[in-house]
Specification:
This protein is α/β, with parallel strands linked by helices and about 325 residues long. The protein contains 7 helices and 9 strands, in the order αβαβαβββββαβαβαα. It has a 7-stranded mixed sheet. The chain has a two-stranded antiparallel ribbon with strand order 4-5. Bound molecules: zinc ion (ZN).
């Protein structure tokens, strides 16, 4: 009995400790949300005929934050910028990118949502292209030695043809080291490459031969990839239901989305539409269009949040059923 008694006490103590722990308010899966309006200040991002990507992204980001704050007053929302500056008022794009990631990490963010606009083609709106619109056969006399003969040739008629910048739709990017999921398209520079090209960025991506960076990449893949994918899918679903063109969820591992791999949390980058497309630019500038985009992202966020909360509640119930 003397030998058993201390063991019994410690068992009893751990039982009380566990019960007390279970009664505490559990940590909610999403307490801090980081909203990152792309570009800003000296970096306008892509340019439309009427507005820059930096400004449209900021307007939509602020509206999104307002809607989320109204629905979830307890949620902490942190913006990487709220005015037309580079985040942190940094002097360079790279320094601002680092600031975005550091702010997210140091604030203990549970989710990172970057808002951007896409762009494609030679010019926003459209451009003129010289095209052949007809040909007229002509003959000319050619001399070859002592002989002369007639040769047919064509005179071409050209016209400047207006080419509309037609690329449109929405897509959501997430960071992936390899081809983690066959359902997602990998984007390469040669294949349908649009949008985020931080060509000025000299920031490097994690080097897998460095053990510390390799460990960080592994953590990202194991803990954050699925969640990012889940939210990205939900967002594209909402856009599709609203009648937008769904260009899909795309995984990338190039510098254009450097910030996604630098944030130690699930993180996605939403391309809300093509600013280079006249029709989509108008939509993204209109209050109705912005409201719809915000509603779509909000609905997806709500579903994502609820799913995470029900998962963690289920895990707590499981733990409560078998405390020892
Ligand atoms: Zn952008």
């Amino acid at each position: 009995m003397r030998k058993l008694f201390p063991a019994f006490i410690s068992l009893l103590a751990s039982f009380f400790f566990l019960s007390a722990g279970a009664q505490d308010t559990p940590r909610k899966p999403i307490q801090t949300l980081i909203i990152d309006p792309g570009h800003g200040g000296i970096d306008p991002g892509a340019t439309g005929t009427l507005q820059t990507e930096a400004n449209v992204s900021l307007q939509v980001s602020l509206k999104l934050g307002d809607v989320i704050a109204q629905a979830y007053p307890d949620l902490k929302i942190i913006y990487t910028r709220t005015t037309d500056i580079l985040p942190g008022n940094k002097p360079t794009i790279d320094a601002a990118l680092k600031y975005r990631a550091n702010l997210a990490n140091e604030s203990g963010g549970d989710l990172f949502i970057a808002i951007h606009c896409n762009s494609a083609g030679k010019r926003p709106g459209g451009w003129y292209e010289r095209r052949v619109v007809g040909k007229t056969p002509k003959t000319k006399t050619v001399k070859k030695g002592k002989k002369t003969y007639k040769k047919t040739y064509y005179e071409y008629q050209y016209e400047n043809v207006w080419v509309e910048n037609k690329a449109k739709g929405t897509e959501t990017y997430l960071w992936a080291i390899g081809k983690n999921d066959s359902k997602i398209n990998s984007v390469s520079k040669n294949n349908d490459y649009t949008g985020e090209i931080d060509s000025t960025s000299t920031l490097s991506l994690p080097d897998p031969s460095d053990p510390t960076e390799k460990a960080r990449m592994l953590i990202y893949t194991q803990n954050y990839f699925r969640k990012s994918l889940n939210l990205a899918d939900l967002i594209q679903e909402e856009f599709k239901d609203a009648g937008r063109i769904d260009r899909g969820v795309k995984q990338r591992n190039d510098k254009g989305i450097w910030v996604l791999q630098a944030t130690g949390m699930p993180s996605i980058l939403v391309e809300i539409g093509f600013i280079s497309n006249k029709e989509e630019q108008e939509y993204m500038l209109s209050p109705e269009g912005q409201d719809e985009i915000v509603r779509n992202i909000f609905s997806a966020f709500k579903k994502y949040k609820e799913k995470l909360e029900s998962k963690s509640a289920a895990a707590r119930e499981d733990a409560a059923k078998k405390p020892f």
